[in-house]
Amino acid sequence: MVGYALTSPAEFHMPSGQLMARRWAAFAAGSTAVFAGMQGCGSGRSSGATSSPALEPPTGLSYPQASITAVVGTPLAADVPVVQGQVVSYSIAPDLPRDLHLNTSTGVIAGTPAAPAPPTVYTVTAKNGAGATTTTVTLSVSQPVLQVFSLNFSQDPVGLYGPSIVSTDWNRPPWADGPDQGFLSVVEGAESYEGGRSLKIWYPAGQFGTAGPGGAGGGGVWNTQFGAGGALQSFEELYVAYRVKFQSGFDFVKEGKMRGLAGGARNDGGHKPNDSDGFSVRLIWKAGGQLKEYVYHPDQAGVYGDELAWMVNGAPVVFTPGTWYWIEHRVKMNAPGQHDGIVQGWIDGKLAFDRRDFRFRDTPAFGIDAFQFSTFFGGSDATYATKKEEAAFNDDFVVSTGPISH
């Protein structure tokens, strides 16, 4: 209501009729202003009123870790989603591996996985009352990486690397060619890797194979079996890596054998596997230093293992004498009877061989149970023999359930 003074000095002397007319005019004007103001308040029915914006679906859902490799027993770093708009709830399909979870309120993926799981694509959905947005996350769970065997020569004395040291260093192999004949020694200085201590392998002139005139052809051969206390341990997948250098001026002649992984009967030497006895996956050098895979498996073309070239950028891998190389092998056993066994190879961290269709076995009775230390010239006749004394060097042997050099 509009208020006003009862009587102003000017109004005091007005006739009563004139005074009342003036006050009614003032009241009417004030009431109009008040009522006009009230029309813009309260009910919101005036033409100038506004309403809340309509709810929109969330958009742009993503995760910083779109591809996750988790490890059994290791907490997964929380994967926090990024999304635009309001989200009421999150869901995922299919279900995550055991002991991993998605927070349905925040969308965070976290937990500590309890068992291995193969790579799987999971669809995450973020939604509200107006709609939803989705994204995918690829996740796998692997076993913790286990170092099955490792050896460098920093603790070994410089000099002859004889049978007792070989037995201690290499998990007591049941037999060994080379240490008895004095073909192995520990050296240090310019010939060794980075000036430390490395293993030197000697190949006498005019010799080939592991047993020639005088009892040996040079080099060294033995099987390091996996396991402790006499119990043989077998694996479905392993990696092996080591460093190798051929002395300056090394003549590769026709062919020579190198190290690798094997299992069961550890077939080599022309003993073709028969689906249920064993296998071996080693390396072989050819004339001029070309590097090849040397695989004994039931489907090999002949009596001797298949020779398969290592290639980098479309070119054969060829050793340069006087240069250190870091070699790595991966072998994964096939499901019995299936052609899904894997052999891969890396040189100085570069993938040089990758084949995924090997059949090593038709039975689960054996897996990968040994590292074959195998190095000699040959071949089985004198055309493979060394033309002069030769030497090669090794260091940093590692066998592991996970990658080593890459």
Strand and helix map with partners:
Blueprint: H1 16-39, E1 59-62, E2 67-71, E3 76-79, E4 82-84, E5 89-93, E6 100-102, E7 109-111, E8 117-128, E9 131-142, E10 147-151, E11 159-160, H2 163-169, E12 176-177, E13 184-188, E14 197-203, E15 220-225, E16 237-246, E17 255-264, E18 278-286, E19 291-296, E20 306-309, E21 311-312, E22 315-316, E23 324-332, E24 341-347, E25 350-358, E26 370-377, E27 390-400
Parallel strand pairs: 2-9
Antiparallel strand pairs: 1-4, 3-7, 5-8, 6-7, 8-9, 10-27, 11-13, 12-15, 13-14, 14-27, 15-26, 16-23, 16-27, 17-18, 17-26, 18-19, 19-20, 21-22, 23-24, 24-25
Q: Which parts are unreliable, with pLDDT below 50 for 5 consecutive residues or more?
A: 1-17, 23-47
Number of strands: 27
Span of the ends, CA to CA? 87 Å
Helix content: under 10%
Q: Based on CA inertia axes, which overall geometry fits?
A: elongated
Give a quick account of the main beta sheet: strands, pairing sense, barrel closure. Answer: 9 strands, antiparallel
| CATH C-level of the largest domain | Mainly Beta
The class by helix and strand makeup works out as: mainly beta
User: Judging by the overall fold, what is the CATH architecture of the largest domain?
Assistant: Sandwich
Report strand %: 35-45%
> How confident overall, as mean pLDDT?
89
Description:
The chain is mainly beta. The strands form six sheets. Strands 10, 11, 13, 14, 16, 23, 24, 25 and 27 form a nine-stranded antiparallel sheet that branches. The protein contains two helices and 27 strands. The longest helix has 24 residues, at 16-39.
